[in-house]
């Protein structure tokens, strides 16, 4: 998954981003709302972690404006305010959940997973297609009953395909979702990751099809 973290406390931002990256997620960090708006305008995110009090404004105003503009990306508010009215206010503005500071990183990760499951309309953590069973939390792929451990980017790539079977992903779109804004990546790198994933799936009835000039698509035979 690709996350946008909007947080001006650098130490907290580093800790959260490092923990998320260990789980294989891609994280872009914005310390101000202006930077966050620029990220949203140029990239696509699966989840936004949004602080409330930022140097150039209130995160709640930012959330209200972007919801009004049609942004439907799930948002978890990070707040030091513990009053019920503050939490309810954030939810009414369009937040999907909130976490009160200081928080345990395991709790934040669990809330991220819960929000993403709700948005996908599923209460399950595993995804199944034919002979393929995928557990994104454990990082396991099962093909015909054989368990395969995936590397982080292989895991996230498979997750993208399985969440949108039949959809064509261009190399540019895959690069945008697999790498953060400041990482330099070539189309060859995307080909390498797709090739690795194909090898894992070769004994199954699921395959990644190349559409020349367009990109890749996950198909179930």
Question: What does this entry look like structurally?
Answer:
By secondary structure, the chain is an alpha/beta fold. The protein has 2 domains: 2-120, Response regulator (Rossmann fold, 3-Layer(aba) Sandwich), CATH 3.40.50.2300; 127-220, Arc Repressor Mutant, subunit A (Orthogonal Bundle). The protein is built from 8 helices and 14 strands. The chain has helices spanning 10-22, 33-42, 59-68, 84-92, 105-120, 152-163, 171-178, 187-201; strands spanning 2-6, 26-30, 47-51, 53-54, 57-58, 75-79, 97-100, 127-129, 132-135, 140-143, 146-149, 168-169, 206-211, 215-220. It has a 5-stranded parallel sheet with strand order 2-1-3-6-7, with helices on both faces. A 4-stranded antiparallel sheet has the order 8-9-10-11, covered by helices on one side. Strands 12-14-13 form a 3-stranded antiparallel sheet. A hairpin with a 2-residue loop joins β4 (53-54) and β5 (57-58). α6 crosses α8 (187-201). It is globular, with a radius of gyration of 18 Å. It starts with a strand and ends with a strand. The mean pLDDT is 88.
């Amino acid at each position: 998954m690709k996350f946008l973290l909007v947080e001006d406390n650098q130490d907290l931002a580093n800790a959260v981003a490092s923990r998320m990256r260990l789980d294989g997620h891609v994280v872009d960090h914005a310390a101000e709302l202006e930077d966050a708006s620029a990220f949203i305008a140029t990239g696509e995110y699966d989840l936004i972690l949004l602080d409330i009090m930022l140097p150039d404004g209130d995160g709640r105003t930012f959330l209200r404006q972007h919801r009004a503009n049609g942004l439907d990306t799930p948002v978890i508010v990070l707040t030091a305010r513990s009053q019920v009215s503050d939490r309810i206010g954030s939810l009414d503005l369009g937040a999907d959940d909130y976490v009160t500071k200081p928080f345990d990183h395991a709790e934040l990760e669990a809330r991220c997973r819960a929000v993403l499951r709700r948005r996908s309309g599923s209460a399950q953590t595993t995804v199944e297609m034919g002979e393929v069973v995928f557990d994104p939390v454990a990082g396991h792929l099962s093909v015909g009953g054989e368990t395969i451990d995936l590397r982080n980017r292989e895991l996230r790539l498979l997750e993208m395909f399985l969440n949108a079977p039949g959809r064509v992903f261009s190399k540019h779109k895959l690069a945008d979702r697999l790498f953060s804004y400041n990482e330099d990546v070539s189309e060859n790198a995307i080909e390498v990751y797709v090739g690795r994933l194909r090898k894992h799936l070769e004994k199954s009835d699921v395959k990644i099809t190349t559409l020349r000039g367009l990109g890749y698509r996950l198909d179930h035979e």
